[in-house]
Amino acid sequence: MTGVSYKDSGVDLDVYNEAMKRLPRLMHRTFSPRVQKLDGGFAGLFQLDFNNKLFKRNYKNPTMVACTDGVGTKLKLAQMLGRHDTVGIDLVAMCVNDAICCGAEPLFFLDYVAMPKDEPPVLEQIVSGISNGCVAADCALLGGETAIMPDLYREGEYDLAGFCVGVVDQDQLIDGHAIAPGDKVIGIASSGVHSNGFSLVRKIVFDVASLTPDSMVADSQQSVADTLIEPTVIYTKATRQILSHYKVKNVVHGIAHITGGGLEENLDRITPAGMDIEIDGSIWDRPMVFPWLQDLGKVETEEMHRVFNMGIGLVMIVSDFYADSISRMLTAAGHANWTIGEVKELAAGSDVEKRVTVFNK
């Protein structure tokens, strides 16, 4: 008599093994000599320091920095399109862009992929994006987990979670406490929507406007699919270059990753008491996706600025004297940027502890 097998419950271990065989090459291309290979092991190994001139960090008082995030309902778009090779970039970006806000060097990344059944080609596409994101972020894809759960996910669905670990020397830690009157606010361009607000995006585009992925975006040569699936920018290399250049002077006083909540809410997270940050919303170039979405959905301007990054993916608050040189370094690294505001002292007698305001929205 033949009993019930794991395969009968929806999990095929032979297909799972096939999927797993596709992943090591995608991991190995992200490895530096600080990774100790342990293929088939139960954990990943990473040396915090390394006795080599190129990789020696000489940490004095290292502080570990850990971040975790997902991609949100942008996954629904990827699944609708059958395009799975960019959301892995988004996954890495959402984690490493948070880590660099503390001045950290991202060291390694772990992923969690949950699917209803093993689909080796789909998993390979997803992890290829994660691998590409790790290469762009200069961090190692050290390991991960693929969970097959037929009772929790419907056919064609999957979910992603990412985990980044970084390090920063304590005297190089950036937490916003050094932000002072006179500091300049540099806004660094996003590539579009990035990975926040996609529940609203999908509501506007597919429900309210009844567009299809092949529809063309107004005043653009791009389709809806290409415009919306554009991955999140990874700012690691440019940020690390700037922080390494000014390692002694500590001229970058605050960094904010602009995600859900927009400029005001994310800058508020690093603004110290007594400071008033004023942003001129008319200075930078808006990617066409934002006015297009606002017009399609008749969305209030305040709502747009609260849900989306509106064209600014990362903000650096820097010493006035070094603002121009930092801006030039960002431009040379390929990131459009603008000096979009200034830090002022909060007026005496103010009824708030601190303030961040975006004018001319």
Description:
- The mean pLDDT is 94.
- The chain is of the alpha+beta class and 361 residues long.
- The chain has a six-stranded mixed sheet.
- The chain has twelve helices and twelve strands.
- It has two domains: 9-170, 60s Ribosomal Protein L30, Chain: A (2-Layer Sandwich); 184-359, Phosphoribosyl-aminoimidazole Synthetase, Chain A, domain 2 (Alpha-Beta Complex).
Largest beta-sheet details: 6 strands, mixed
Give the strand line-up of the largest sheet.
Answer: 8-10-7-11-9-12
Secondary-structure-derived class: alpha+beta
* Assigned CATH class of the largest domain: Alpha Beta
CATH superfamily of the largest domain: PurM-like C-terminal domain
> How many distinct helices?
12
What oligomeric assembly is this protein in?
Answer: single chain
Quantity of strands, as a count: 12
Strand content: 15-25%
Question: Percent of residues in helical segments?
Answer: 25-40%
SSE arrangement, N to C: HHEEEHHEHEEEHHHEHEHHEHEE
- Principal-axis shape: globular
Distance between the termini: 72 Å
Radius of gyration: 22 Å
List its salient traits.
361 residues; alpha+beta; 60s Ribosomal Protein L30, Chain: A; Phosphoribosyl-aminoimidazole Synthetase, Chain A, domain 2; 2 domains; four-stranded mixed β-sheet; 12 strands; 23% strand; globular
